Amino acid sequence: MSNSSVSTEKWKTLEKRLQKLGISEDDLEERFVRSSGHGGQNVNKVSTCVMLIHRPSGLLVRCQEARTQGMNRYIARRRLAEKMEEMLLGAESRRRQEIEKIRRQKRRRSKRAKEKMLEEKHHRAGIKRARRMAGEGSDLD
Q: Of 75, 92, 109, which residue is a domain's last?
């Protein structure tokens, strides 16, 4: 299954992931269609778009991201694995874990931003206080 556009290591890792999910190559129906969109002559001449159907579950994945058929085959299988994980694992799926991780990062970022803003406010207040103190001292008659 290895292809020149994707390293054999990546293919092997993906194959292991598919095996864990119970997806075998025999269960997959793969079709190649012409892509649409940008790509010029390559898109018009070569069938780089990959349609992958997992017969037992009926899951369909279509990929035309990359310019090469080999890369699209890899991406399509990876997407199929992600969809299957989401179906089987639900809340524990990688996608949901990634979304949770991003939410936590954003929450942390906003907290840091708030602290920085408050620090700046205190600094400005100190400057104004110092100005007021200096102004009171010069009222001597």
A: 92
Query: Is residue 44 assigned to a domain?
Result: yes
**66-75 pLDDT per residue, tens:** 888 889 999 9
113-128 tens-digit pLDDT: 889 999 999 999 999 9
Ordered DSSP codes for the chain: --BTTB-HHHHHHHHHHHHHTT--GGGEEEEEE---SS-THHHHHS--EEEEEETTTTEEEEE--SSSHHHHHHHHHHHHHHHHHHHHHGGGSHHHHHHHHHHHHHHHHHHHHHHHHHHHHHHHHHHHHHHHHHHHHT---
Q: 94-137 vs 69-89: helix axis angle to the nearest 10?
A: 90
Q: For strands 59-63 and 28-33, give the pairing.
A: unpaired
CA-to-CA distance for 24 and 96, rounded, in angstroms?
25
Q: Which domain holds residue 80?
A: 8-92
